[in-house]
Amino acid sequence: MNIQEEFEEAIALSKTLTKNPGNAMLQKLYGLYKQATLGDYPHEKPAGFDMIAMAKHEGWKTQQGKPAQEAMREYIEIITQLKAQE
């Protein structure tokens, strides 16, 4: 199985998690997912009043420069660990 297939399986597995991993982990997973699928954050910083958009921005921005395959591997590893803890 190649990394793309493993990543897609991890995405599907993430939707079956029964425990909330917390905001910090969700932010990290969002950033890894976006970096893996779209690359570096291409937009301006969102308005300061939209806290959800700001959190997403920060999660993605922290992954800046990370190669897509590395982001995929990290995402897969985290989801696998979270699922094992349930």
Describe what you observe in this structure.
The protein has 4 helices and no strands. 21% of the residues are buried. It is mostly helical and 86 residues long. The chain has a single domain, classed as Up-down Bundle (Acyl-CoA Binding Protein), CATH 1.20.80.
Summarize the SSE layout with pairings.
Layout: H1 3-14, H2 23-38, H3 51-61, H4 68-84
Helix pairs in contact: 1-4, 2-3, 2-4
Structural class comes to mainly alpha
Radius of gyration: 13 Å
Determine the N-to-C terminus distance.
25 Å
SSE pattern: HHHH
CATH architecture: Up-down Bundle
**Shape, please?**
flat
CATH fold-level label: Acyl-CoA Binding Protein
Q: Report on the biggest sheet.
A: none
* Number of alpha- plus pi-helical segments: 4
Q: What helical percentage do the residues reach?
A: 55-70%
CATH C-level category? Mainly Alpha
Strand percent estimate: under 5%
Please tell me the total number of domains. Answer: 1
**Mean pLDDT score, rounded?**
93
**Total strand count, please?**
0
The low-confidence parts are none
Oligomeric state of shown chains: single chain
Short description:
The chain is an all-alpha fold and 86 residues long. The protein has helices at residues 3-14, 23-38, 51-61, 68-84.
